[in-house]
Amino acid sequence: MLSNSSPSLIHFLLVVVGTAFLIYPATATDHIVGANKGWNPGINYTDWANNQTFYVGDYISFRYKKFEYNVFEVNKTGYDNCTIEGAAGNWSNGKDFVHLNKTGRYYFICGTGGCTSGMKVSIVVHSIPPPPSASIAATKHSSESTKHASAASEMASGRLLLVVLRTLLVGLVSSILTR
Ligand SMILES: *[C@@H]1O[C@H](CO)[C@@H](O)[C@H](O)[C@H]1NC(C)=O
Ligand SMILES: *[C@@H]1O[C@H](CO)[C@@H](O)[C@H](O)[C@H]1NC(C)=O
Ligand SMILES: *[C@@H]1O[C@H](CO)[C@@H](O)[C@H](O)[C@H]1NC(C)=O
Ligand SMILES: *[C@@H]1O[C@H](CO)[C@@H](O)[C@H](O)[C@H]1NC(C)=O
Ligand SMILES: *[C@@H]1O[C@H](CO)[C@@H](O)[C@H](O)[C@H]1NC(C)=O
Ligand SMILES: *[C@@H]1O[C@H](CO)[C@@H](O)[C@H](O)[C@H]1NC(C)=O
Q1: Residue ID of nearest Cα to ligand 6 atom 11
Q2: What is the pLDDT of residues 80-107, one digit of tens each?
């Protein structure tokens, strides 16, 4: 079936898509608060947060015993004083995913009393860094790749590039299969 297609084109696309997969995670990262310890008292979530890099589009998720604990998004005052007045949001399903859709600092606390036992976490969400312009051009297919690399560096988001490349690949594969 592949004989009707241009092998070099397929090779080129596979290299580019493969490179894109290596550089950019295919999906937004889900940062599970406390990792396998979850959202519970007696854990230093500052240590946990210091070990993570949050980007716009990522998720922060809280895993805990439903009804016992919950999650409030508060401001610095709420975080410092363990108060939920004027909270920007709250979640209580026991497995809560919060979409980090803007840059900046976020504060989350438990609203059932756990905050004073350490159930508070503050994170900083960064904008997605521009794609490293040299990396795609570093593949052997210089002329075509350079064109793609410069287009890529103009894109605000590397993830957008990935979506485009995936669409190209899916289109290519389905056009081969439906021949
Ligand atoms: C948590 O760890 C951070 C950094 O290691 C430290 O500054 C902070 O005092 C700790 N918090 C508590 C409540 O122990
Ligand atoms: C930070 O991440 C490293 C590597 O994933 C891990 O080994 C370490 O336990 C983490 N530390 C904390 C405090 O989560
Ligand atoms: C927060 O707590 C501190 C010290 O406990 C207190 O001085 C301050 O007034 C409190 N702020 C608010 C807004 O309640
Ligand atoms: C946090 O929100 C409370 C309640 O809306 C408000 O009184 C307080 O001034 C806010 N603190 C900050 C630092 O924005
Ligand atoms: C929790 O959020 C809901 C909306 O999702 C709101 O109606 C409710 O007042 C909030 N609860 C508190 C205690 O802020
Ligand atoms: C960002 O997320 C919040 C809460 O999840 C939501 O209320 C808000 O509409 C979102 N904003 C955008 C621009 O998607």
Answers
A1: 101
A2: 999 999 999 999 999 999 999 999 999 9
Mean pLDDT (whole number) for 46-56: 98
Q: What pTM, to 2 d.p., does this model score?
A: 0.70
Q: What's the gap in Å between 100 CA and the centre of ligand 6?
A: 8
* Total structural domains within the chain: 1
What percent of the chain clears pLDDT 70, i.e. is strictly above it? 59
User: Residue 79 falls within a domain, yes or no?
Assistant: yes
- Contact status, residue 111 vs residue 82, Cβ threshold 8 Å: no
> Does residue 16 lie in a domain region?
no
**Ligand 6 mutation pick, 99, 100, 108, 125, max ligand atoms within 8 A of CB:** 99
The contacts of residue 12 (CB under 8 Å, 6+ apart) are 141, 144, 145
User: Per DSSP, what are the bridge partners of residue 2?
Assistant: none
157 in a domain, yes or no?
Answer: no
